[in-house]
Amino acid sequence: MLDEDDSPDDLPEDLGTLARRSLARAGYTCLDQLTSVSESDLGRMRGMGAKAIGQIRVALAARGQSLAED
User: Fold this and answer.
1) Burial of 16 from C-beta contacts in 10 A (0-12 / 13-18 / 19+)
2) 59 CB contacts (<8 Å, ≥6 apart)?
3) What range defines the domain where residue 58 resides?
4) Which pick of 13, 32, 48, 60 has the fewest CB atoms within 10 Å?
5) Looking at the domain assignment, is residue 70 inside a domain?
6) Is 57 within the bounds of a domain?
7) Cβ atoms 21, 47 nearer than 8 A
8) What pTM was estimated for this model as a whole?
9) What is the pLDDT of residue 70?
């Protein structure tokens, strides 16, 4: 189980616990890794609703990055 000490530092602070755990279970531990994942792939993960995906998109955009194309 993911606890606060295991949380990746660069994911959005307000990203929900379920979304964080789903990302960790899938092996995604930092924002850079999510540039190879499409929005539809994220949407199939438990806890990844429109709000969580939007938060990730905004965080990536702030770094000049984006999710992979579908």
Assistant:
1) middle
2) 10, 11, 12, 31
3) 15-62
4) 13
5) no
6) yes
7) yes
8) 0.84
9) 86
